[in-house]
Amino acid sequence: MFHLSRRVEFSAAHVYHVPSWSEQQNKEVFGKCSNLHGHGHDYKLDVVVRGKLNPQSGIVVNTTDIKNTVNAMIEEELDGKFLNREHDHFQHHMPTTENMALYIWDRLNEQFDDCELQQIKLYENTELSAEKERHALPRLTRKYHFCASHRLHSPLLSDEENRQLFGKCNNPHGHGHNYVLDVTVQGTPDADTGMIIHLSELDSIVEREVLDRYDHHHLNLDVEDYKDLNPTSEVVAMVIYNLLKPHLPQLYRIGLWETDKNYFEYYGSGA
C-alpha cells in the first residue's frame, strides 16, 4: 500500500469566543484569541491518501486530482473567510485547529477515486498543528524549545567503546543543542472550547515539568533524571514522556529534534 501526500495552503480568520461566557472567562481561557475583531493565520494543509499501484500507469492516483479536489473545497469554504461569521459549521463549532482538522477530514473523506483518505494534518503556524487519521481521535501538537548540554557516555561500556560509539559526543566536557520538543495530545475536543486541552494548561505543565528542569542545564550534571541514564535523545524523549504522562493523561507522543537532521519519537512503553 502506498501513501501519497499533497500540500495546499489557505488563509482564514477566526475568533475563540463562547457567547454564554463572560468577557473575563473568555479572556482567561482563550487569551488574545478571544479578541472579537478576530485574528488570522496562513494555514498549511497536508492531505495524505493511500492506495495500490496501478500497474498500467505506474501511479496510485494523479496528485493533480488530489490537489483539485482539496482546492475546490478549500476555496469554496475556507480560504479568505472569517470562519465564525461566514461558515455555517463554524458558527456553531469553535474553529480551533483540531476542530478544523476534523471538519476537513469529514468533508474530504470518500471524495477520492482509486484511493482513500489516510491523514489530514493542519498547521496553524510553526508552533501548533492538528492531525486526524483514519480510525483515530484527533491529535494536537504543540512545539517547545529548550537549550541544554550533555555528554553521551554509558557506564556499561569501556572508555574506548564509548569513544568509538559516540565520537565527539563523548567529549568529557559535554556539548549542547537547541532542542525542539513536540508534545502531542489526543482526544475528543471539548464541545464548548473546541480544544483537546486548554493550551494555557498544556503550556504550564510542559514548562513546569520539562522546560524549567532542562533549559540551560547540563543534563548529566544538573538533572537528577539522568544520574543513572545516558542522555541520548532516545532516552531524553522517553524520560520527558514519563515526566508528562502523570500530569497529562491525553499525552500521545513525544517528538524530540536534537538537530535539524536528527529526530526521535516516543509513544510510551505500551505502544
UniProtKB/TrEMBL annotation:
PANTHER family: 6-PYRUVOYL TETRAHYDROBIOPTERIN SYNTHASE, PYRUVOYL TETRAHYDROBIOPTERIN SYNTHASE
Pfam family, any one: PTPS
Transmembrane stretches, start-end: none
Keywords: Lyase, Metal-binding, Zinc
Protein's pathway: Purine metabolism; 7-cyano-7-deazaguanine biosynthesis
Catalytic activity: 7,8-dihydroneopterin 3'-triphosphate + H2O = 6-carboxy-5,6,7,8-tetrahydropterin + triphosphate + acetaldehyde + 2 H(+)
Protein family membership: Belongs to the PTPS family. QueD subfamily.
InterPro entries: 6-PTP_synth/QueD, 6-PTP_synth/QueD_sf, PTPS_Cys_AS
Cofactor section: Zn(2+)
Any GO BP annotation: tetrahydrobiopterin biosynthetic process
SUPFAM superfamilies: Tetrahydrobiopterin biosynthesis enzymes-like
EC number(s) given by UniProt: 4.1.2.50
Name of this protein: 6-carboxy-5,6,7,8-tetrahydropterin synthase
Organism name: Paenibacillus barcinonensis
A GO term for molecular function: 6-carboxytetrahydropterin synthase activity
